[in-house]
Amino acid sequence: MDPEAVANFLSEQRENAPEDLQQSFLTIEDYWDRKLWHQLTDVLVEYFNTPDSASQRLPLFRRFILSFSEKINQLKFVSLGLLAAAQCSDDQERLSFLTDLTTKVNKPASQDAYVYALVAASDVKLRLQDLAGARKDLDTAESILDSFDSVETEVHASFYRTNASYYQAKAEFGSYYKNALLYLACIDLKSLALEDAQSRAYDLSIAALISDSIYNFGELLLHPILDSLNTPEHSWLRDLLFAFNRGDLNAYNVLEDNISKAPLLDEHKTFLWQKISLAALTEAVFRRPPHDRAMTFQTISQETKVQPHEIEILIMKALSLGLLKGSIDQVAEVARINWVQPKVLDMKQIDNMRLRLKDWDSSVNQLGNWIEGVGKDVWAA
Prior knowledge:
Distance between the termini: 101 Å
Order of helices and strands: HHHHHHHHHHHHHHHHEHHEEHH
Helix content: 55-70%
Oligomer: single chain
């Protein structure tokens, strides 16, 4: 681009900019004239992240930044492109813009930037309901990411966020849950607005409850994003998660009327009852010491409120899901459990474990005293 044309263009943009941002254009002109590409990139990123720069991003990108795009960090180049793309008039224009950007950075030396742009394009395809096209782009991005030893966190965050959105659109709640948590692990939670944090916590909670592959959501229970649900409107959902975690049927019955507030939960009401029954079963086993885990069907029925004729199916379901390990004596109607899946404990469950440890300590002391009493002659010898 002709230096004089650039100077005229920047001068024109400076005059159109808000007064408090006009100094930035003098800096931009200076760095461009001196070919200080790194410093120029940084000041452009800073300028593009200023809300008042919105109307100037697209013209600056198309008429200025593209002219020296090969000379700057490609990941930052894509970042500038994404900020400019936000100002496109609609998603069709935005997709065309991002497709050109993706093609431009698809080079061996800039595969991280390529993934960043490709994921952004797939996000737009999701909004345009092109799920197949989005999945193809995400699969390509994932294969490239898997080949990297390391990559900028923002690239991974972008991938997990969009991948989660894809699985949410497909109602694949287990995969959504996994990718949404990975996204949160890549960002600073303080960067999320309260409304966004609440929305993500809400969607994660719903996914955890209705997924047929998630029976242990301790990672979510410990995640600080769940604190955003501590509001009168959403606290019931947080309480419901903890009720499921401890297999608390009484708490479930108290909170059950709130389920109609969430259409997806209401649609899966029968499944939720089956899931809380499984949680009640695993909790009943967990509360017992290892030497007392041979449970009759009648006992399990009392603990889980499941009809006696459905107990065998309940136990088999728990065994098949890996929640329990053991065997069933169908004739004697006894389940012998030798392992229960570990899970996050609340304070009440921790107190129960404390009492069990005290009982164990007492039993060890009694055994020691007995051995000492009956083995005096042996010890003396």
